[in-house]
Amino acid sequence: MAIWLTSDWHLFHRRNFIYSPRGFYDAEEMNWQILTRYNSKIKPEDTVYVLGDCVVGGPITDEILDFMSQFNGRKYLAIGNHDGNRKIERMAAAGIFEDIAFAYRFVYKKKELYLSHYPTIVANFDDPKPVYNFFGHTHQSSNRFKYYNNMYHVGVDSHNCY
Questions:
Q1: How many C-beta atoms surround the C-beta of residue 153 within 10 A?
Q2: Which of 36, 94, 98, 155 has a CB 3.0–4.6 Å from the CB of 65, allowing a cystine?
């Protein structure tokens, strides 16, 4: 079993400023490529933290829930800025996620981690035991947050939509 982090799929986001820079013709192609790439890495027994904004645009329909149920793994959602109450309620009722929270904080291999949608400074710079922030939201193409080495972007935009 592996633990994976991802963010900002923006599935069903039919605005070309999202799918075009990612190299896709339309939202449908983007949706299927993100699903295909994701499932090529994630096994059903893996744990995945989705750090917000998995679906953008319009209400969550049964079609969208059916599509989302095809993503492998035991998934946990850290709420993003596009995850409104109605979307959260529908995804929770459908059992898409094991848990939905604003953020997750835990120790993994003796490292303290804070998983959130937004980039967050979570420790002093000179702290001998830093807290590492994994985040989405920014849609940046680089993995590190500018100036802060203990902050890492996990969004699909900096990972070739994986």
A1: 25
A2: 94
